[in-house]
Amino acid sequence: MWSDLFRVARLWRSRWPALVAGLAIAMVSALSGIALMTLAGKGVAAGVTGGGLIGIAALLWLRPFVLIRPATRWWERMASHDAAFRALADTRVWFFRRLAERRPGGIGMGGSGDLLGRLIADVDALDRFYLGAVVPAAGALAAVLAIAILLGAEPWLLVLMALPLLLALVLPLALAPAAARAATEAAARRGEMRAAAVDPLAGLEDTLAANAEPAAARRLAQADAAMMRAQRRLVGRGAMAGALGQTLTQLALLGGLAWGLWAGEAGAALAVLALFLGIAALEMLGLMPRAGAALATAGAGARRLFETTDTPPPVAEPTAPAAMPEGRDLRFEGVRFGWRAGMPPVLDGLDLTLRPAERLAILGPSGAGKSSIAALLMKFAAPQGGRITLGGADIATLAAPELRARIAYLAQDARLFDDSIANNLRIAAPGAPDAALWRALAKAGVGEFVRGLPEGLDTFCGEGGARFSGGEARRIALARALLPPADILILDEPTAGLDAEAARSFLVTLGTACEGRSLLLLTHELTGVEPLDRVLRLAGGRLLPAAG
Amino acid sequence: MRQARAQRGRVALPVALGLATTLCAVGLAFLIARVLATLLGFAGGGWEDLGIAALLVLAMAGLGMAQEAAQNRAGEAARAKLRTALFARLMELGPDDKRGVGEKAALLVDRVEALDGFFARWLPAVALAILAPATIILVAAWADWVTALVLLVMGLLVPVGMAVTGIGAARESRRQMDVLGRLSGRFVDRLRGLSTLVQFNRAEDEARHLGQVAEEFRTRTMRVLRVAFLSTTVLELLAAGSIAYLAWRHGAHLGANHPDPVAAIFCILLVPAFFQPLRTFSQAYHEAMSARGAAADLAPLLEAPPAEGLLLESMPPRVTVAFTEVALRYEGNPRPALDRLTFAVSPGETLLLVGPSGSGKSSVLKLLMGFARPSSGRIALNGQDATRLKPAELRRLSAYVGQRAHLFQGTLRENIALARPDASAAEITRAAEAARVMSFARRLPQGLDTEVGEGGYGLSGGQRQRVALARAFLRDAPLILLDEPTTALDPGTEAEVMEAIARLCAGRTAIIATHSPQLRGLSARVLELGAGRMAVSHVE
């Protein structure tokens, strides 16, 4: 837990000045609270013992502190929250970047629902680390030190008061590990609950078609109950910590009084002061043990974040990438590849050459490994044997972004984002003028359709292109792949979801769409109209010349 | 907030426990005052008072823990109820609801969780914020009426300060929730297409954009908090003012033969106890405000009347489908998806819907699945108006395979059994066999018991499609609705599956939307749709 929290702290390094400033303000605020109660105590004590001037002075000073204490509290809250949110925003972005690096091919098992839960809930839990533990601890530490100094003249009073307070201050450290286990459990159950909610929603049509709503509701209710049981344990620990904190601070207060009774009249003034300081400590330290739960929740969140992001990238970036080669020849030499260990490899000794401007189709049934060829080329995965070269250079030695810039790829699951058509297209070519977008749309055979939409290029696509029919969405994704000026174009089942006539009319124009680029067409069937130079068949993990 | 009323019973226990804690605190203040009076040389208490005080401290610890447990129970019950109702509602709305999955999940998980504070902390805090200070004012009046008056005035000032600051917070909080929803929606959306972003080297830009959204989130949250913290500050100001005033008043008088020193000290010590429930209230107040923001999003969903409709009296063994002049328009789309479509399909007959994409093939199936309602015209099943049935009942009649089959978390077997949970293992295997699932499942490490993740990771589109077909086989419904069932299959598998489909459709009423010329090999009637209108209808 601690190592994870330290790592979080390091992650926030650039925000340290703001975060430390928040701590300093918390200390100032705590000290002003102590000052307020000291003056009130001295005033009362002076009144009793007839302390004349001191009493009057104390009561005069009391007035500004009545304003200063709440003002510094407000300032403390604003400064600490602002700093925490800045740090959190950084964490979100960091997490996204890491995922892009570690899961470039998309998210697999674990599910996006759970990942979303991680980002929002776990990252948000990290703010408890700072706001719920570190900031109050800074204030409490300042308060305990101030009290120790004010009462330091009487060692026994110091022991009776400061010791329980100090205990309340360090208690979170002792309580945190057990609470951390409860928090890990609660966070995991919450992730499962989210997955139970997301899964039937993501497959909404299938859920409804099977009349499986009651079963899905039951599963969600079970996950919900499991989450609440875990939360209950966490809440129970928090409540216990809270009770401990209250008891310790109140015992400190009673300890001060006991010292007073023991010391007799001589200690009266100091005992009154101790009482008022005890009241101040009640507020500042009473909630401290609860920080243990905050630490634990944050620690559990951090653990899960790091677990997700610490998986090694599927393809290591070369430390010193070779310069991008001029040549455009693409070669696979004896490539062997399987997605999972223990399963037969999808590609087994595959050889392939794609010459510049050549148009090549690879035919094969679904699951034969056509998409794996593209994944290897895009460096979403690395071959377990053999090598792939571009212009003579092994792509393992090339920087992935530069390599990807040379290849335009229409994946089978190419996704339209919940954004405008224009923004979706510009993902492939930032800053492309509208005219270029229209040209790409026309090439994909969807120009007329988009022109007919009331909002044209500004039409929103909906999540995953849900606003359009499958064929329309596919063609917009196709237009996006045609947009960048890449050397090699990979089209993976480009006409899936298009009717025969539309598919045919698109494939006829493939020659112009390529505009001199090399083309790798991955498909399970050919219509015969494709302007191809060569057709290969993928079977048993190798490429064979297509018969006929 | 209608839920609040139903919760009243559950709140009684935490409130009673809270009140008991307050009474303990008053007793503690009194005992401390007696000891302090002794210290100051007046007649007061001694060690025995201190002992009782220590016991009270322990009692308060126990009460506090019990109160928290009771509050948590109240929150649990409320959240479970809300989540169940909301999920049922989202299912009822079906694909007609245009919210994305991320947004729906945010409603179902985060918004409902955000309401926890309302039920667990806000409702008890409201009751205690009135009852506890009132009790203390009564006790204070017995000791010193001026103190009681000061506390009363301060107590009345608290809601004034809160109202002033709270109104702004509520308005801000609502806007902030929108941003939170957008952030969460955007994240799932971009994460699902992570590989699309990576391949175009745009992940970095998106990360930056995500940073901007988070920055906006921060700015908005700070705007809410600026006001929210002010009201806490008002409270602290009042508390500090009370203490200072009472310290001055009693401090100035104590020396000069104060008539009742114990009462005087008692009055000062009551101040923290007086403000404690108000402070809890103030913390919970902002929880309630953010809950209100969340509730505003949930309320329209929860308060909508439940879907009405008839239930099936019995499962008809055969279904005749008849469309008469059926039209379907989607909101915001000037072109109708279907325009006065008329056709009929009898039991034992298969109808192929063909036509260019966007011609309304899927819409016909969606109408029959109750995912959409016709804008005009009549859809009859065995002569009865289909729209009078509850959509869920309508779906019981059919086995449906959509364009994008979804695999749920679980084993392949569970995924097939979804269509008929009471099916035996042999029936599931038979369905898997018929849909050619076995031809790839056999090669998987655990066969049909292989886990498949969300979105069907590890299975190709064609394999997913075959799992969906297996569901249709298992379902054994009189009406078969297939939307592009072979689009992701290679010709070899397609031929195999075709034959399976032919067997599936035999003796049943079947409607298949397709592009594939292969499917035309089925002995079927073909209905050509063009731009939402039926063009030709001919028997092959």
Commentary on this structure:
The complex is a heterodimer of chains A (about 550) and B (about 550). Chain A has about 550 residues and is of the alpha/beta class. Chain A is about 60% helix and about 10% strand. Chain A has a 6-stranded mixed β-sheet with strand order 6-7-8-3-9-10, with helices on both faces. Chain A has a 4-stranded antiparallel β-sheet with strand order 2-1-4-5, covered by helices on one side. In chain A, helix 1 crosses helix 9, helix 2 runs parallel beside helix 4 and helix 3 packs antiparallel against helix 4. The longest helix of chain A has about 50 residues. The two termini of chain A are about 65 Å apart. Chain B is an alpha/beta fold. Chain B folds into 2 domains: about 260 residues, ABC transporter transmembrane region fold (Up-down Bundle); about 220 residues, Rossmann fold. Chain B is built from 16 helices and 12 strands. In chain B, helix 16 links the parallel strand 9 and strand 10. The longest helix of chain B has about 50 residues. Chain B starts with a helix and ends with a strand.
